[in-house]
Design brief:
The chain folds into 2 domains: 1-187, MFS general substrate transporter like domains (Growth Hormone, Chain: A); 261-486, Growth Hormone, Chain: A (Up-down Bundle), CATH 1.20.1250.20. 78% of the residues lie in helices and 0% in strands. The protein is built from 18 helices and no strands. The radius of gyration is 22 Å and the shape is globular.
Length: 499
């Protein structure tokens, strides 16, 4: 391997490590919430905002961040975002009040919103050969996905060993490694046309994603009867419709909507959204409330997912070259649907072996399908608009993930309350955790069993819906995605850095 190729793959390794930290940061907070409530005196509203502030900032800033990177330099923006992410992590660790932590988490979300599209755009620039780019995207996607289940594992261990601030300080050394690697290995790249920033479009994107995401979070937490949630959703949707209309008229649009005319980007984005929609979020609750394991134990039980992701990504890398994108994605969606379908049969008495099997199978399916569809979308990006295109893809995935959590959470809550029967009353109907706490306080074993069975029933319906979505998408993927992928080039050093 030439020195140039070694530099490119080393740079990818550093960016993958940074993406793992972002994935980890999205989930590590959940295990620290009880400690934060005690040490910072945070009430339920503040605890919700610790997570909400990060999600809102991430969703709102991502689309404009891509355009700013194309205009002023992707390497420059990535370096700045890494430094801000590290400083915000320190501020989170040493926050002395709920307000300080919310502010620091907001800044952390802004930095992550720039890091995600900039690292993805840099992959496009560094790896011009489609076969190499697909391998690089496989690593990038896997690193991001692994961070999600890794959060509860590391978070649980750190909380059992140190204080709650340590779950944020683990970001700092990774950020420092990333900064050094970007300075030493990543070339600067930008749009050679130096397009002006579409400031009205940026304002509409920020306001629209902010309102839409806030509305969906409210609907997911408080149920579909929350008028403020629907108001936020409607306002956000209206602003985003106005953004699309503005982009069609703008001389230098913020988002290149012409990308959706290209089959690879259009269908790659659609299936990336479908796979994101199928990503479930109830396992930590199941482990904590039904199996009664602590934070670390809950995290450890997510290891089968990590193993599945790693196996799936390796297998998918080979299959994409031999079978093509369409059949590789079809296989991944089939395994993902099968895993989720098996998960729908989970009961209160299911052993961990059964749960581990379907969780691992789900991880394999995601590991095979997600890198392939992301690579298909990236193949249609040009070097000059790589940042804006990457940001558009990731913003859509972020919005879809938020919609999924709101919709699936509402489904789970509706089934949970229906299955409670006579026990469907406050505060038991609020959540499985509240129901378990009440049953424990009353010493009512029958109520405890009913609460657990009601939650597992809701989880089963939710997983079944996700499985049906994945299986319905399978024949569509076989029809619309490209066939056999390009073979790798003989000499990786022939791949240039792009613009």
């Amino acid at each position: 391997m030439s020195r140039s190729a070694t530099h490119r793959w080393s740079a990818l390794g550093a960016m993958a490590l940074a993406m793992t930290v972002i994935g980890l940061d999205m989930t590590v907070l959940t295990v620290a919430l009880p400690n934060l409530a005690l040490d910072l005196g945070a009430g339920s509203a503040a605890l919700q905002w610790f997570s909400t502030a990060y999600t809102l900032a991430l969703a709102a800033v991502m689309l404009p961040a891509g355009a700013f990177g194309d205009r002023y330099g992707r390497r420059r923006l990535l370096l700045g975002a890494l430094l801000v992410f590290g400083l915000a992590s320190v501020a989170c660790a040493y926050a002395a009040s709920p307000g300080q932590l919310i502010a620091a988490r907001t800044v952390l979300g802004v930095a992550a919103a720039a890091m995600i599209p900039m690292t993805m755009a840099t992959v496009t620039v560094l790896f011009a050969d489609p076969a190499e780019r697909a391998r690089a995207m496989n690593i990038w996607v896997t690193a991001t996905a692994i961070g999600l289940p890794l959060g509860p594992i590391l978070g649980g261990w750190l909380l059992n060993t140190f204080w709650w601030g340590s779950v944020f300080l683990i970001n700092v050394p990774v950020v420092l490694v990333g900064v050094v690697a970007v300075v030493a290995l990543v070339p600067e790249s930008r749009d050679p046309g130096q397009r002006p920033i579409d400031l009205p479009g940026a304002g509409l994107a920020v306001a629209g994603m902010l309102a839409l995401t806030y509305g969906l979070i409210r609907l997911g937490e408080d149920g579909l009867g929350d008028p403020l949630g629907w108001l936020g959703f409607a306002a956000g949707a209206g602003l985003l419709v106005a953004l699309v209309r503005h982009q069609r008229r703008a001389a230098y649009p913020l988002a290149d909507l012409e990308l959706f005319r290209r089959a690879g980007f259009r269908w790659g984005t659609v299936f990336a959204v479908v796979i994101t929609f199928g990503l479930f979020f109830t396992l930590p609750q199941y482990y904590r409330a039904v199996l009664e394991v602590d934070a670390l134990g809950s995290g450890v039980r997510l290891l089968p997912m990590i193993a599945g992701l790693l196996v799936g990504s390796r297998v998918g890398d080979v299959l994409r070259v031999r079978l093509g994108t369409a059949r590789t994605v079809g296989l991944g969606l089939g395994l993902l649907g099968l895993g989720l379908g098996l998960g729908a049969f989970t009961s209160v008495g299911s052993g961990f072996g059964f749960v581990a099997a379907w969780v691992a199978l789900t991880g394999v399916g995601m590991g095979i399908a997600l890198p392939a569809v992301m690579a298909a979308a990236l193949d249609d990006l040009t070097g000059d608009r790589a940042g804006a295109g990457s940001a558009l893809l990731q913003a859509l995935r972020q919005a879809a993930g938020t919609i999924a959590v709101a919709f699936l959470g509402a489904v789970l809550a509706a089934v949970y309350r229906a299955q409670l029967g006579a026990a469907n009353r406050p505060p038991i109907d609020d959540s499985v955790n509240a129901g378990v706490a009440v049953a424990r306080q009353l010493g009512d074993a029958a109520l405890l069993e009913r609460v657990r069975e009601a939650f597992v029933a809701g989880m089963g319906v939710m997983l079944a819906l996700c499985a049906l979505l994945c299986l319905a998408a399978l024949p569509v993927a076989l029809r619309v995605l490209p066939g056999r992928a390009a073979a790798p080039v003989a000499d990786p050093s022939e791949s240039g850095h792009g613009r």
